[in-house]
């Protein structure tokens, strides 16, 4: 049913998702313009040289300084020189790279020289950082669009709930729902009694075979019998006993059980561990819910139920199910069903909200919020 007043009001207000998307779009546009002002390719080239120079400073700091490794000192200066030779004329901060190279080509380097070189590189780091800023802005923009799309979906779900609540509020609560309820109740009572007799009187191997075959009908939600249990009732004489007798055997002591079955250990393994499953077997999976399914769905349920019910119930029960099936052909079926659903599901609080117009207000606000998000998603397209 619909959410609480607080949830609906929160969802129907001006959505934060729109504001976040707008901010993310603006941030992405600013980051894109900052990159384009220099050129993305040029910035990437600059970043490559910047990163390699940073790596060289990190690798040789302490080795190429003072009276350290002279070979490392020469190797460091050579690699820096090679890196900065023939830099493209249009490379951003080309002069800074060359200044750093000139600075590092001293006869002797100290740790403070390495630190100063890093400081000289710092402005270049800020410049190439624009690429990372653009990547981050792009990810934030994509996330904002995803969040907005999710929010629009949530609002759609809430709108569906509110519209359904309105439909229930429009239902005729005085409609004669007994025209549906009585045939359904008659069938449910009959099939419940028939299954009870079937479970009590039918050999377990036959009863469980019927339940197993019900797997072929998706709308019949019997839990399929455990494989070990099926194997036991098929292969042992105790499988000729009805389910209640097997449950009784499962409660016997091992010494007492030896007098009744050919393999006490097998029964205890297959049956005693499945007591809960066997005790819970009832007609619920072939009963018609109240309120009943829609006029489109009811015939499908009846068709699949009949395929299973006919295996354990007599013709009178199948005939009762046919009467239920024919209910879907009534011109007033949906009106009566909506009345039954409204009586069953509408709470007093929901009726008060419907009467006061609060549901209509919340629905209108939710629709506006969803439309606002839709407009924002159209305006700020995916990248």
Using only CA atoms, what is the Rg? 39 Å
From the N-terminal CA to the C-terminal CA, the straight-line distance is: 37 Å
Label the overall shape: elongated
SSE pattern = HHHHHHHHHHHHHHHHHH
Give the strand content: under 5%
Count of DSSP-assigned helices: 18
Helix content range of the residues, please? over 70%
- The strand count comes to 0
Largest sheet: none
Mean pLDDT: 88
| Spans of at least 5 consecutive residues with low confidence | 1-14
Structural class: mainly alpha
Keywords: Coiled coil
InterPro entries: DUF7118
Description:
By secondary structure, the protein is mainly α. Among the domains are: 134 residues, no CATH class; 58 residues, no CATH class. Helix content is 71%, strand content 0%. It is built from 18 helices and no strands. α6 packs across α18 and α14 packs antiparallel against α15. The longest helix is centred in the middle third of the chain and has 59 residues.
Secondary-structure topology with pairs:
Elements lengths: L4 H8 L3 H23 L1 H21 L9 H15 L9 H11 L6 H59 L8 H24 L2 H10 L13 H9 L7 H8 L3 H4 L6 H7 L4 H5 L18 H12 L5 H13 L5 H13 L2 H9 L1 H22 L4
């Amino acid at each position: 049913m619909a959410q609480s007043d607080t949830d609906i009001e929160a969802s129907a207000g001006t959505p934060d998702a729109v504001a976040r998307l707008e901010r993310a779009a603006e941030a992405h546009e600013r980051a894109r313009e900052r990159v384009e002002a220099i050129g993305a390719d040029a910035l990437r080239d600059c970043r490559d040289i910047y990163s390699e120079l940073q790596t060289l400073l990190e690798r040789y700091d302490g080795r190429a300084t003072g009276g350290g490794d002279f070979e490392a000192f020469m190797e460091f200066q050579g690699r820096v020189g090679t890196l900065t030779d023939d830099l493209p004329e249009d490379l951003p901060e080309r002069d800074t790279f060359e200044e750093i190279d000139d600075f590092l080509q001293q006869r002797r380097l100290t740790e403070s020289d390495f630190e100063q070189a890093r400081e000289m590189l710092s402005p270049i780091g800020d410049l190439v950082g624009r690429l990372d800023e653009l990547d981050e802005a792009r990810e934030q923009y994509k996330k904002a669009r995803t969040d907005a799309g999710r929010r629009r979906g949530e609002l759609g779900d809430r709108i569906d709930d509110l519209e359904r609540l309105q439909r229930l509020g429009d239902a005729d609560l005085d409609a004669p729902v007994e025209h549906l309820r009585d045939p359904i109740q008659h069938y449910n009572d009959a099939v419940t009694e028939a299954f009870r007799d079937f479970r009590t009187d039918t050999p377990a191997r036959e009863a469980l075979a019927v339940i197993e075959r019900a797997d072929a009908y998706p709308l019949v939600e019997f839990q399929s019998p455990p494989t070990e249990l099926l194997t036991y009732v098929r292969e042992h004489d105790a499988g000729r006993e009805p389910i209640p007798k097997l449950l009784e055997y499962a409660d016997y002591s091992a010494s007492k059980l030896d007098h009744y079955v050919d393999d006490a250990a097998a029964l205890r393994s297959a049956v005693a561990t499945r007591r809960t499953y066997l005790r819970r077997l009832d007609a619920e999976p072939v009963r018609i819910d109240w309120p009943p399914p829609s006029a489109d769905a009811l015939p499908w349920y009846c068709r699949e139920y009949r395929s299973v019910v006919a295996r354990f119930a007599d013709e009178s029960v199948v005939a009762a199910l046919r009467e239920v099936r024919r209910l879907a052909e009534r011109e007033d079926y949906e009106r009566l069903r909506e009345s039954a659903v409204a009586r069953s599901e509408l709470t007093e609080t929901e009726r008060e909200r419907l009467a006061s117009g609060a549901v209509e207000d919340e629905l209108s606000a939710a629709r506006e919020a969803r439309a606002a998000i839709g407009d924002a998603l159209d305006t700020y397209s995916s990248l």
